[in-house]
């Protein structure tokens, strides 16, 4: 059911107070957009929020994100209570980081996107999967997987404090959050090192 005008006003006031990134008129726009998306959802969640499918369509069309793995991870980060539904609070807070986040917030967000299994590390396998999806294959003669493996090793050498080469099988070749944060602070361009997961400046 549509929220009453008074309910919407109270919600906007509350979200404006809690939001670090949006003013009142921006929050109103985001709440209106949320209502439109909920109406489109036509699911069990309609009324409280919208589903992964509606979220993916929206983020894809608004921000040009096309990678399914990235879109799933972004949904999981927005969906803080992990109930499969984006509520209005999750929507406004998530977009705050995505559109206006500080460097600290964006470092944390990108790390969470790239940490596909949520274990607190970005592993070789995760880097490989992300890079394989985000890179264009240049030449039919070249073995694409080998080039991506080389890129993974270069990234690890540059970013990991405990880098171990591919002959070492004790799984040390992975990035901790501290490694990732330090590398990005030293060189901001590394923020999206493993694939685009933030909107461009447009």
UniProtKB/TrEMBL annotation:
Domain EF-hand: 66-101, 102-137
Record-linked Gene3D superfamilies: EF-hand (1.10.238.10)
SMART domains, alphabetized: EFh
Domain of life: Eukaryota
Pfam families listed in its UniProt record: EF-hand_5 (PF13202), EF-hand_7 (PF13499)
Key words, A-Z: Calcium, Metal-binding, Repeat
CDD domains reported for this sequence: EFh (cd00051)
Molecular function GO labels: calcium ion binding
Name of this protein: EFCB1 protein
């Amino acid at each position: 059911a549509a929220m009453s005008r008074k309910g919407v006003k109270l919600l906007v006031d509350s979200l404006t107070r809690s939001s670090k990134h949006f003013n009142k008129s921006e929050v109103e726009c985001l709440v209106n957009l949320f209502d439109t998306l909920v109406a489109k959802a036509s699911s069990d969640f309609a009324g409280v929020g919208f589903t992964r499918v509606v979220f993916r369509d929206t983020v894809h069309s608004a921000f040009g994100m096309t990678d399914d793995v990235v879109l799933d991870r972004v949904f999981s980060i927005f969906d803080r209570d992990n109930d499969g539904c984006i509520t209005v609070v999750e929507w406004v807070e998530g977009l705050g980081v995505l559109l206006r986040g500080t460097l600290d917030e964006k470092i944390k967000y990108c790390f969470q996107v790239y940490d596909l299994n949520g274990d607190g590390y970005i592993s070789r396998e995760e880097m490989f999967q992300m890079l394989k999806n985000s890179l264009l294959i240049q030449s039919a003669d070249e073995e694409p997987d080998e080039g991506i493996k080389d890129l993974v090793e270069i990234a690890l050498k540059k970013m990991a404090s405990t880098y171990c080469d591919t002959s070492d099988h004790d799984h040390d070749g992975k990035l901790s959050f501290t490694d990732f944060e330090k590398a990005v602070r030293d060189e901001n361009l590394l923020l999206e090192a493993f694939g685009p997961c933030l909107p461009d400046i447009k």
